[in-house]
Amino acid sequence: MQVLTVEGVVEHEAGRLGLSAGAGEPRPVRLADALRTGGVVAAVIAAHPVARVLRDRVAPPVPADEAETRAYFQRNRDRHPQDYAVERDALAARLGAEDAERRFVGWLEERCAALVRLEPGYEHPGDPRHADATHRH
To answer: What dihedral angle (degrees, nearest 10) is formed by the CA atoms of 59, 123, 125, 108?
Structure first.
């Protein structure tokens, strides 16, 4: 139900903004993406090209600034053995893309909250409003 709901909001918002996408190929959902954005949003972005187009319109990636990139590099020297000058551009681009993903998720959650009203009983089973909130993973 959650995936169908998010897909519907994505399609609604893309239509509202006049966005479309070709029949692009689905992409595998990577664990890192699912953990960073939430499994539902990661699955929708991976499966639907229009979701990727919408993401790029709503939250275009902007490379991270110098201070953020350098701080990340310093905190993660074990992952980046090369000199900062060699790694800087790739790191800034990746950090910017991850920030764009977070901004898109926040925007999409706001749009879902504004547009979606679930009927009683269709909440996530772990939601305290659900009649049987005993869901376990």
So the answer is: 0
Question: Helix count (H) and strand count (E) of the chain?
Answer: 6, 0
Tell how far CA 47 is from the center of its chain: 12
- pLDDT score for 44: 84
Give the dihedral sign, CA 18/23/24/28: positive
Q: How many Cα atoms occupy the beta-carbon half-sphere of 28 within 13 Å?
A: 3
Show the tokens assigned to 64: 């991270």
Better pLDDT: 22 or 29: 22
- The rounded distance, in Å, linking the Cα atoms of 107 and 56 is 12
Evaluate if residue 119 carries a pLDDT over 80: no
Residue 42 clears pLDDT 70, i.e. is over it: yes
Percent of the chain with pLDDT over 70: 74
- For residue 42, give Cα distances in angstroms to 48, 105, 115, 133: 10, 9, 20, 25
State the burial class of residue 37 (Cβ atoms within 10 Å of its Cβ: 0-12, 13-18, 19+). buried
Instruction: Tokens 């939601």: give the residue.
Output: 127
Q: How far apart are the first and last CA of the chain?
A: 17
